[in-house]
Structure formats: C-alpha cells, structure tokens
Amino acid sequence: xxxxxxxxxxxxxxxxxxxxxxxxxxxxxxxxxxxxxxxxxxxxxxxxxxxxxxxxxxxxxxxxxxxxxxxxxxxxxxxxxxxxxxxxxxxxxxxxxxxxxxxxxxxxxxxxxxxxxxxxxxxxxxxxxxxxxxxxxxxxxxxxxxxxxxxxxxxxxxxxxxxxxxxxxxxxxxxxxxxxxxxxxxxxxxxxxxxxxxxxxxxxxxxxxxxxxxxxxxxxxxxxxxxxxxxxxxxxxxxxxxxxxxxxxxxxxxxxxxxxxxxxxxxxxxxxxxxxxxxxxxxxxxxxxxxxxxxxxxxxxxxxxxxxxxxxxxxxxxxxxxxxxxxxxx
Length: 330
Fold this sequence. Notes:
The chain is an alpha/beta fold. The protein has helices at about 20-35, 40-55, 75, 90-100, 160-170, 180-185, 190-195, 215-235, 250-260, 305-320, 325-330; strands at about 140, 150-155, 175-180, 200-205, 265, 270, 275-280, 290-295, 320-325. The strands form two sheets. Strands 2, 3, 4, 6, 7, 8 and 9 form a seven-stranded mixed beta sheet that branches. Strands 1-5 form a two-stranded parallel sheet. Helix 1 (about 20-35) packs antiparallel against helix 2 (about 40-55) and helix 1 crosses helix 4. The longest helix is centred in the C-terminal third of the chain and has 19 residues, at about 215-235.
C-alpha cells in the first residue's frame, strides 16, 4: 500500500564550532566592545561581519564547482569538531548584538542539553505501510520529548547562499540538510563547508522522484545511490532519509533499511519567508516538532535564505521554543 503524505501542508550537527573559532571569538569581542561603548551601529556591525568573513574559509557560491570532499579529503571538508552551543557561552550583550546584526528581534533561545538516552521512535498513526512492522525505519513528524525544542530541516539543495552558512554559524542555530544529488552536484564544496560547521547531511534521493511510481530497482537506485554519493563526497553514510514530497510505500522503507537508513523524519510544519504552513488543526508548535523548509532563494519564493531564517526564528522564539539538533534526539 502506498503511503501518501497527508495533512494541511502542500507535500512538496550538534552545533559545533568550526576550525574558525578564533574568528568567532574576535567577532564576539568586537561586538561586546561595541555594545559596551554604545556604538554598535549597523555600519559597525557590517564592518565586523566583513572582517569575520575574510577570516573564514570560502563557503562557495551558486554555480561554483566547489572542491569535492570524498576519500582523501575527509578531514578538510568533513569534520565537525566536538562541542556545541558555542555562542551560548558569550555574554548576553554579545548574543544580542549578533541577533541584531542578522536582523532578529532577539537572540535565539538556547536548547537544553541533549537527552542522555534518545527517545524511542515509532511510526506516526496513519503513516504505516501494508505489511510493515517495527523492523522498518519509523516514519514520524514529531520527536517524542517534553523539551521545548523544535528541529529545523532543509531539503533539496538548489540555493547555495554563503550568507546562510555565516548566519547559522554565528547565531548557533542547528539544522539538518536532506540533499538530492541533482541539486547539489554542481557545488559539493558548499555542503562540505556546511558539514564542517556541524550540519548533518542526509538522504533525499538522487533526482527527487515520486518514489511509489518507480519499480523496486528504480527506488533502490534513487535511495541507495544517494547513500553511496553522500558517503563518497562527505565521508559519512546517512542514517536519516526523507522521501520526496513525503510519498513512500513499503518498498521505499524496506529499501531504505537495506542501505543503512534508521529513521524517516517527515515534518509537522513547513516554513517560508512570508508564512508558515501547519499540519495540525491548532496551527501551533509542539515539543519535538520537525519543521521543513528548502534551500531556495528569490527565484523561487519571496525572499532569501536569510529572510527565511529571520521569519521562522521569530515564530519559534516568540512561541518560547529553541532549535535543537535533530540528530541529538534521533
């Protein structure tokens, strides 16, 4: 039986300081000094940002070929040093200045430490497949937790905005990427840099097809082929998989399991630069909700990636939630 994603939506790392920690510390000190002297002007903030950007490795840009990670270069593109919540260690004035720099009304709330034992995951009621059992990867839209946290996920990979990498790194906002190779193969280097900054790179198939319409071998090529490419390019085989459009059937889950997938996170909300779409009738966030958005820009929607982050973070923060790293709970 085919499982067609339903709901109100139109189905369509641990944050870790990178090797550029000195640049972030310098930026923090500059911002703190500016706040303390009362001269943290927008121009000054931009000057600090420019100096900080020059101190960072290049993040690539749309259309650029980028350096491929792959075997022989995993340490360069594929590392994410241990540690999390780096910016939470900064003084409140620094965090406020960083938020102001990126146009947020206030700093993001800090997520609690991840659970010592990850929650037990089960398939959401109504999302089962015929003949399925507990041996298949669970399909879910919300992670079972009492923590006031939500999880931000980004799909596909068409837009490769360096400002997004800088913004998420400086504000210490974790997110998980679900990549389709046809969208990212022109610039693996961009996503290698994202991985170095702590972003988990997960499977969203090679070409973003409607999976239930494919043969078993066709589904296997799409799912396991993307597993192989992500492992080759970024040095790590994904354990999380999101089927395109949220559509899947029993073959999808059995194939995903066969090539290393442990869980299938869908979503409970979808974020756009100018609005949110909600699965639940209460149109509200809930502890453990997974939020979907996409790597897209002004060509596809009314705003940039940074506009999107500003909008979704306002909703999340105003409702009293922090963004946690999905892989710390799943």
